[in-house]
Every structure is written in structure tokens, then in C-alpha cells.
Design a protein that fits this description.
Layout lengths: L8 H18 L11 E2 L15 E2 L1 H11 L4 H23 L4 H6 L4 H12 L1 H50 L15 H7 L2
Antiparallel strand pairs: 1-2
Length: about 200
Amino acid sequence: MPSRHMQNPGLLLKARSVLLAAHDLLRDPSRWTQGTVARDQTGETVDVTDPRAQKWCAVGAITRAAHDMSLPEYEQHTVQTLAQELMMLDLKAWEGTNSIPNANDKIGGYATIMAAFRRLLDHRRFQTLSRRSEAAMKGWETRRRIRAEHNARVAAEVAARRAAWEARRAASQPMTFGGTLPVSSINADAKKEITV
């Protein structure tokens, strides 16, 4: 699978919702277009999120559907990209191209795009993707847990070695006296002990 996001069941569900909404946008052939991502009622090119947009290509419909989900911007982009990757994988398997614009504008057009949407929205196929995704997530969780345990073990060993080294260092350092004592405060016995 090309994207690590395909291993996240939550993102897969959101991508499926985007594909479903995009499919619904294009269900009527009069709402589909070629050569640009979106057009208004007069046929002029507009932005996919423009309220005047009435027709979309496959990429435009996916982009519009992701935008309409009202997700945080970073997640919207991720879900949109994942939905497009799913469609590209389907088109590569069925049409021999992984270019959505190529399939939309050249290879079969509307019929090709709608067939891809139907295959992607097939419940059995989505269950297969979800099972793979859940298995991948469990694998990632296991790897993260093993790595965390390893890192904790290494950190404990390093801390123990450092403590042992500090203890040896403290034991092997000679005692030093700093400064001088005022001569007037030293009695005769102390002078004998100091001058050895």
C-alpha cells in the first residue's frame, strides 16, 4: 500500500465517506465535467469549493467532498489524499492507469469514473481494506510497544552505569583543601597536624 494512512482504520472510514459523497455529487451525469476540476452553470472554470460550482471532475468531486466534511485542515488534506490514492489503486488495477485525470478525461470518462466509485464503495472490498488496516495497526502498536520497552531498558542500563561511574569517580578522587586558614585562629596543636 502506498500510504501509511491506509493502515489507519479511522482515516479509511473518513476516506470512504469522502468517496461516497463524491459519488453522490457525480451521480447525475450532467454534474460531471472534463478538462478542469470544476465548472459553474455557464461552463466557466471555477474553484472546487466555489459555491457557484455545479460540475466536477473526479478529482474535483473528491476535493469538494473532503472540504464539505468540515475536518481540521491537516486531516482534510490527509483524508482527501487517501481517497485519491484509493481511486488511483483501483484505476491501476482495472484500467491500467493510476492517473485520475487520465481516466476522467481520456479512458472511458464518466463510465470509468463511476465504475471505480462503485468498486471502491463495495462493502466487501472495504471490509478487506479495513481488516488489512486493523492488522497493520496492531503490527505498528506491537512494534511501538517493543521499541518503547527496549528504550526504557536501555535508559535504565545507561542510568545504572552512570550512577556506578559517578560512585567510582567520587571514591577515587583525592580530598583537597581549598583556601588558607587565618594564622591567628590556628593553635599550636593544629599547626603540628597541618604541617606533616
